[in-house]
Amino acid sequence: MTDYHFVAASERFLTVEEPLEEVLRERRRNYEENSKAIDFWLVRQPAFLETNELSAINSQLPKPAAAVVSTDPTFITFLKLRLEYVLEGSFEAPSAAIPDALASTAA
Hints:
Elements: E1 2-10, H1 11-17, H2 20-33, E2 40-44, H3 55-60, E3 65-70, H4 73-83, E4 87-93
Antiparallel strand pairs: 1-3, 1-4, 2-3
Protein name: Protochlorophyllide synthesis factor Ycf54
InterPro entries: Ycf54, Ycf54-like_sf
Family: Belongs to the ycf54 family.
């Protein structure tokens, strides 16, 4: 199983109100320069939030929601501090509740 970490908020907040695109573009550039595999994704209307284990977070999010998901917990902590008005969480996948968290929801 893989541990995924995420920040989630309304899709409008993450894609329109905050300069998230710039942050993700810079991180992608850095990864390419260092020959590092991409380990983060912007997920619109993430299905993993519909699971029972994440229902408390999901109930607090304005809809439609979006999330930045990563296998790097430090990056997610950075985003939480940078974006401020987001919820943070984590999950393991694949699992019974989340067979393949990113395959069907990645944007």
